Amino acid sequence: MTDNYKTICDELDALTLTYLSKVSEYIELCKDNSNHFQKGFVELAHAKYTMGTRTISHYSYDKRMKASLQVETDDLKRVSIKQDKSEKDKPEQMKEKEEGLRKRNTQTSNDSEPKIEPKQEKKVKKTNKDPLHWFGLFVSPSLRTSQKSFKLATEKLIDQVNTIIELKEMEERYHDLLESKEASRQDVEV
User: Fold this and answer.
1) Cα separation, 125 vs 107, whole angstroms
2) Domain that holds residue 156
């Protein structure tokens, strides 16, 4: 047997071990997601029981609801959470505020004319996007816990999808290596 054949066999072995560990990781992600969804539904049922079925129903939903979590894919078909524009700007705004506070006392006392800057920032109407406010001001703690469980499960689903994509890529690589192994073996036999 040639060295090429042996290296292909070694790559197949290594890829098989990596694939099996990735399958194990995927199974753990499935179990974790199942637990998060289960906890979310149990807490939601408890909230319906404590707050009443009329309080938590489809009649309480805001008809103008929007998704609180969005995903995006990259060139490699990986899925990630899409950040809202307002969330992207928050760190920059915080940095600007910190710099403004730091520079506040750096003026020298020799300035005879105080500088007055007009307020350029308009107050933006703060809208609360939290869907829990649809169900009243004081919602059940079970409903909050349910929301957290469902959010966590949804975020973990992204990891699960990315793991599936990695497994498919490994399968394709495995089949390519098998074909090159067969071609290499036929070259040795001839």
Assistant:
1) 33
2) 1-58+142-190
Q: 81: which 2 tokens?
A: 């959470």
Residue 158 bridge partners (DSSP): none
- Cβ(81)–Cβ(69) under 8 Å? yes
CB 131 within 8 A of CB 68: yes
Name the residue among 48, 1, 4, 2 with its Cα closest to residue 177: 4
- Residues 47/150, Cβ–Cβ less than 8 Å: no
- pLDDT of 5 reads 86
Distance, in Å, from the CA atom of 65 to the CA atom of 43, rounded to the nearest integer, reads 22
Q: Does 158 fall in a domain? A: yes
**pTM value?**
0.67
Residue 68 lies in a domain: no
Average pLDDT value for the chain: 79
Give the count of domains, the chain: 1
Task: Classify burial at 53, counting beta carbons within 10 Å of its beta carbon; exposed 0-12, middle 13-18, buried 19 or more.
Answer: exposed
Assess if residue 36 is contained within a domain.
Answer: yes
In a domain, 148, yes or no: yes
Segment 81-119, tens digit of pLDDT: 887 665 555 555 555 555 555 555 555 555 555 555 555
